[in-house]
Amino acid sequence: xxxxxxxxxxxxxxxxxxxxxxxxxxxxxxxxxxxxxxxxxxxxxxxxxxxxxxxxxxxxxxxxxxxxxxxxxxxxxxxxxxxxxxxxxxx
Length: 91
Fold this sequence. Notes:
Belongs to the HupF/HypC family. This protein is α+β, with helices and mostly antiparallel strands. Helix content is about 20%, strand content about 40%. It has a single domain (about 5-80), classed as SH3 type barrels. It has helices at about 60-70, 75-80; strands spanning about 5-15, 20-25, 30-35, 45-50, 50-55.
């Protein structure tokens, strides 16, 4: 299964001319490209697909979606397959 789980942007930096971010999904973090949403800010919520932030969500919508996924029992299943990713510092 591949659900678009809302995540919270917790860090933003530039890498090779592209805005990148760390997005938190229920305790798991991933490095995400902000090329499609370059005006995202820390603290905002997004849906990520294939490593790219593709949709901005307000906090209420993100929390409601997370609650519904948890109620359906699919949130833990989706997050279990994710491997934590650390921010790569530029060389």
